[in-house]
Design a protein that fits this description.
Layout lengths: L7 E2 L8 E4 L9 H9 L7 E6 L4 E5 L2 E5 L1 H4 L3 E4 L6
Antiparallel strand pairs: 1-6, 2-3, 2-6, 3-4, 4-5
Length: 86
């Protein structure tokens, strides 16, 4: 039986880690924050890469980098993407 994917706050990822933003991950944020993040490319099932953990948490989505305050990064749930090792 396959295990359910692990969901953790975006703020817990380390530099270089990639993750997928979970469905409804942004629902706990105020509407104006959700709209702003969506306009910058962060939506359900998008892939993010952590450029710099901490405050601000800097993530990359496609070619866009976003600096997120800790309280926002704490509330965005993601599923880490396993790195492929040869």
């Amino acid at each position: 039986m396959p295990r359910a994917p692990i969901k953790i706050p975006l703020s817990q990822l380390a530099r270089g880690q990639r993750a997928t933003v979970e469905c409804c991950a942004l629902d706990s944020l105020p509407n104006e924050h959700r709209c702003l993040l969506a306009a910058m490319g962060m939506g359900e099932q998008c892939e993010v890469r952590v450029c710099r953990p901490g405050t601000p948490c800097i993530v990359q989505i496609d070619q866009t980098r976003l600096g997120l305050p800790r309280d926002i990064a704490d509330r965005i749930m993601v599923t880490p993407i396993e790195s492929k090792t040869p």
